[in-house]
Structure formats: C-alpha cells, structure tokens
Specification:
Layout: E1 9-14, E2 17-21, H1 26-38, H2 48-68, H3 88-98, E3 118-122, E4 137-141, H4 142-153, H5 155-193, H6 197-202, H7 207-216, H8 225-236
Antiparallel strand pairs: 1-2, 3-4
Helix pairs in contact: 4-5, 7-8
C-alpha cells in the first residue's frame, strides 16, 4: 500500500475495510454537507465513505481525461512536430499496460511499485531515434526517469539540463509576476481615474458624459480628485458657460 500523508490515518479493520481519519477545513466540511444534500435520494444515509468513493471515482475520471484523454469514445488527435510529443492514444494504452505505476526493474529483479509523480518516458531517448509508440514508451517515476536519463547522457549533462529548466521556470515566473503587477497597476489607475464618475453623475451628467470627463483628466492621473473635477467640469461645460468652482454646476 502506498504511504499515507502525515495527519491522515488509514487503518485496516477487516477484510477489504479500512478506517480513515483526517482533519478537514471549514470549506471541506461545507462541501461535504452540500454533497450529502445533493445525494439525498441516492445515498439517504449520508454515509461519508460512500460519498468519498463516488467523489474519488469522479475525480479519477477527470484526471485520467486530463492526463491522457481517457473517455468512453476516444478519438485520434492530430500529431505534433515536436519529437517529444506523445499522442493521447499512446498514453492511454501505455497507462493501462503498465498499470499506472513505474516500470523500472532494479538489480534484484524487483519492479518499482511507485504510483506517485509518474511520467511518460521514451524507452529509447528521442535524441537517439526513440519514437512515441506504445512499444517505445513506458511509465517511470520521476526519480527513475532522471536516473535512466543520467545513465544515458551523463550526470553533468542532466544537471545542466535541470539547471536550465530551473532558470526557465524562474524567468517564466518573473514574467508572469511582472504581467500581473502591470495589470494590477492598470486596474488601480483606471479605478482612480473613474473616482470622479459618481460625482459627475450626481451633478446630472449621464454615463457617457461622465466617462468623457474621465478622458479630460487623463493628463493629470495623480492630481487630487478636486482638481480633476475642476478640469472635467470645465471641459464638459457648454461653450461660453463658466463652470465650477464659480459658475453653473458648482457644488453648494
């Protein structure tokens, strides 16, 4: 049996029966209560074990579909120019053949029984002509995938590759964060610019004219709201009519 994470107890009670004990947060508790209500007719007892089994079946189906496109009537998808691309139909067949676990065989002839961090691996490396066929692909856990790669290409080469991957991941993360910060800055600037809209609406301007007032203040985004109101009212006032602070439309 695979190891159970800390703070979770899974103990055998009888043949094929286990006791599960874990701690959940408030959101999980509320979701459990909600699912119990939805299954009121199908599982009137509200048995948590039955709900857990149904939930895990649904989650497993979703993850299988996401990981290798498993579905009742799978079709063939177009290929890719990427030599490392493995078609979904190949992934499905390999997963079923290998039982969803690592296929590495140790020196003592024992097969690795890991089911965590499973990866699809080319039996013959792509750089040496390996093909993405059912016979040419296998399942390996991440540790044994890296081990076989080091045996093929050498430890220094793979360490360099992993460092490059870490650098690319760090650069991608920095780029995402910069984009998110830029979006946040734009959103904040827009919200600040539109602070005058409620005040212009209060003075009788429709939404279109109020937004025009915002446009008139675009050159002074950091000015106090009073200054931006003055500029907006001057620009919105009819020609020849003085506006706030000492003309028509001035606030009391």
């Amino acid at each position: 049996m695979d190891p159970v994470p800390e703070r979770t107890k899974l103990e055998p009670r009888s043949a094929g029966r286990y006791a599960l004990q874990c701690t959940v947060d408030q959101e999980t508790r509320e979701l459990l209560r909600y699912v119990q209500s939805l299954l009121g007719h199908a599982a009137p007892s509200g048995d948590v074990g039955e709900i857990l089994k149904r939930s895990l079946r649904m989650l497993a189906g979703e993850l299988e579909k996401r990981k290798f496109g498993k579905c009742p009537r799978p079709g063939r998808r177009r290929g890719s120019k990427n030599a490392r691309y493995i078609p979904l139909e190949v992934k499905r067949a390999v997963w079923e053949r290998d039982g969803g676990r690592c296929t590495f065989i140790g020196t003592g002839g024992k097969r690795c029984d890991t089911r965590e961090l499973i990866e699809f691996d080319h039996v013959d490396s792509v750089g040496r002509g390996g093909r993405a066929t059912v016979a040419g692909v296998r399942l390996l856990c991440r540790a044994h995938n890296q081990y076989t790669a080091e045996r093929t290409y050498g430890g220094d080469f793979m360490r360099g590759k992993r460092e490059q991957a870490r650098q690319r991941a760090a650069e991608a993360k920095a780029t995402r964060e910069a984009r998110e910060q830029a979006k946040a800055a734009v959103a904040a600037a827009k919200a600040r610019a539109e602070e005058i809209i409620p005040w212009l609406r209060e003075l009788g301007y429709n939404m279109q004219r109020a937004r025009r007032g915002v446009e008139l203040t675009a050159h002074i985004p950091d000015a106090p709201i009073e200054e931006r109101m003055k500029v907006a009212l001057r620009g919105l006032a009819p020609k020849g009519v003085r506006s706030w602070p000492d003309g028509p439309g001035a606030p009391a």
